[in-house]
Specification:
Helix content is 40%, strand content 18%. The protein is α+β, with helices and mostly antiparallel strands. It folds into two domains: 104 residues, no CATH class; 97 residues, no CATH class. The strands form two sheets. Strands 1-7-3-4 form a four-stranded antiparallel β-sheet. A hairpin with a 4-residue loop joins strand 3 and strand 4. The longest helix is centred in the last third of the chain and has 29 residues. The chain is elongated, with a radius of gyration of 22 Å. The protein starts with a helix and ends in a 5-residue tail after the last helix.
Amino acid sequence: MALFSAIKTNIGINLNDASNVNYSTNDLQDSCQDAYDDIVSQTQCIVKKTTLTWVANVSYYDMTTLVSDYLACVAIFNNINNKWLFDDLTLVDFDKLRDDWELAIGTPENWISLNFRYVAIFPKYKSVPALPAINTFDLYYWAVAPIVVDGQTPAITGDFQHLLEKYSTADLLEQFEEYTKASIFWESYILEIEDYKERVKNLATRDMLFLI
């Protein structure tokens, strides 16, 4: 597992610019961050869990205001009744169940992602227990990439960390209008990230068996 500082050094070598003559340290930092953001968002390789509080009479939860590094919802576990919420319905299905589903009162049974921010819950609690320790749900979610820090290692499996190097090398070559050279790194990056996505998908399938 390499530190970001070592990854940046390798990028400089790829660019024949190990001393940051043509590319500033800020250019390199920004490009590494773009690479990290792209890899994590495409592969969903960072899964986290956080505990949130149910809110009475709320059907739509804006997860981006509740979770700072939220990317998308994976699963929801209700700590009030110790049950998982189902995720096998769509908004169309909610409308078929009842056209005023947002007004439905009861124990939450289903959730759907409406977009990159909102998760809809059906039905909703009219009131919730007063004790904070009980009035909660566990949100399992895909997280966005953290900030690139030189002394830290990326949250990417070791044998795919070179994707960061390939993305940033291609990105910075393009900034210098070295399009032919950049295309070589882009082609390799695009092919290999598909392999990483497949691996993460297979691992996630096994890890999420606890839902069954």
